[in-house]
Amino acid sequence: MTAAFALATSLLWGLADFGGGLLSKRLRELTVVVVSQGAAALVLAAVVLATGAWSELDARLLWCAVAAGAIGPVSMLCFYRALAVGPMGVVSPVATLGSVAVPVGVGMVLHGERPGPLQAVGTLIAVAGVVLAGGVGGGGAPVQRRTIALTLVAALGFGATMSLVAEASATVTGLFLTLFIQRVVNVLVGGGALYATVRRGTPALPEGPEGGVRAIWRSLPALSFVGLADVAANGTYAIAAQHGPVTVAAVLASLYPVVTALAARGVLQERLRALQTAGAGLALLGTVLLASG
Predict the structure, then answer these.
(1) Which pairs with CB-CB distance under 8 Å and at least 24 residues apart come from 42-51?
(2) Considering the entire predicted model, what is its pTM?
(3) What is the mean pLDDT of the chain?
């Protein structure tokens, strides 16, 4: 059961990442974040009411969830922008580093944990993968430095968010409540940023005969899928971690960049140079080793 739910997590997260990046090619990244997370918040609201998760609310959960919600839009904005300019096969494996590396660092600082041999090796391999995935030292045009910078910011944000959610959630219902509050804050922070940019003259929606609200309406199923897939992935991961070793769940769930890369290859016919493919693979291998340690 652990393996099945953890692999389902990889599938859902990978498809959500691909969908978010694809939508960001024709819609503003902030718009994608606000609408997709708004859809997720609505579903989570129903889950919270149905499960009575409000009883889990306390000060620690509230502040951790609010902090995660404030960080989330920045991380997703950077990630979707990086995915939009691509290549997705590089961006997704590099971004997944933070979801493992940051929690490991938090464990070392706050809980006195020390990295094992696998984690030390994983760190070195992951750093080498980041460098190679950027195209350093290879022929042809490397990935833009801005893309790598955006990806690393997103990675740190994802890791911080996961750590905050883990600190807040001791039970499944507590996890649902944490995710609900987080996404409400996501929408508020992202919506505020979107409003500010509109006030400065940047349109929130595409212009032209096929733009405006019609563009959102046509993309609403895909936007909803992105938000709901993210929520479902959190749920399947929680089930996987509860029914088996957390290490196994974390390792298998961390394979979601493979899904994103395969989707980009199949749908967008995205091709990477051999050096970039090797770098992306090393980044993914480093992530697995970090989680396994």
Answers:
(1) 43/227, 43/228, 43/231, 44/176, 44/179, 44/180, 44/183, 44/231, 45/180, 47/176, 47/180, 48/176, 48/177, 48/180, 51/173, 51/176
(2) 0.74
(3) 79
